[in-house]
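We modelled the chain as a single entity of 374 amino acids. Its sequence is:
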Amino acid sequence: MTERILIIGASARAAAASALRAGFQVVAADLFADADLRQAANAAFKISEYPEGFEQVLRSASYDHWMITGALENYANLIDKWRSEFPNYRGCDSIAIASVRSNAWQRVLQDHGVYIPCEKPIDPCDSVVPDGWLCKRRRSAGGMHVLPPSTQILESHDDCYLQKQIDGEPVSATFVASDDSCFLLGTCEQLFGTEWNAPSTFAHVGAIGPLHISDSVKDRWQTIGDLLAERCGLRGVFGVDAIQRADVIIPIEVNPRYPSSAELFDRANPTQSVVALHIAACTNQTFAIDQSRTISIHGKAIVWATSPVVVTDDLTSCWLKRASEVRDFADIPQPTTIAAGQPVMTIFATGETPDDVARKLRAAIANLRLEGIK
């Protein structure tokens, strides 16, 4: 009998697509319930009260497994409550989540020689972010609420901290861990910021990957993943954001759930489903990772609205048709008006190099602007 999986989070579409390719029936609940998610899933629900609204779906839906996407890791106590009420949760428990939402994971890596950027509390006298530092919220995701140097600090100091700013290439790695092993699925270049018309300097835009990396870089990443799985208890699919300088990996954040860039590994390998690997790892089933090197590199980017966007029925239908035929559009909105600074949709591109993919993504966004999607 086909198993059914419930996927909940701010956006469920990417994980739902991965589950569907593995043959799962999918029930999804997120903040958008986009047109392509509604079309593909067995059921899709739009949550108005985040995150409490997911409880009603957990209570009423029928499923064999349930899992989270971002940014529900910021509500570890709520996940723990739901785990006790609704069986068959697949993912990191609250202890593992707490270890990567505090500085416990940093101590683990530092004890094994991995360099971690300095962090410190905000001085109550500081009204702006000091030079050489970033201001971050402890409960955040997608690069939101990250303030660069010299920016005015408007939020409560209790919820924020300072992290030393590190120069280098923004990258990420995706792992899948079971009780006795951890595998590196691959790495990606991270895209963010106002140069992609995102609403803030560090707002997440997308990713490009899988990257072709050297054996030494692969070994460094594997060591990081092994330590986080073994010492912090991470299970299933998880991501690590980092800054890379030559062959040096400097981790800056751990995402204890399915990361948004994971779908690029599915696109690069038609025989693989990251969500299927996640379920297998969390249920102690045997699973195998396809280690074959992919030739093409894939990319995804959020198209951010720079002014209000009116999405008509015809526009939704046109984009759905392209999403099914060309597969370079996703997260297709229902007819609505999208405010400036909000995501419109996701676009994809494929190329031979990361630069080639980035160029194609920029060209696709420019074409949408010419078509009136400002």
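As a brief sanity check on the tokenised model: The CA atoms of residues 42 and 101 lie 33 Å apart. Residues 296-374 form one domain.
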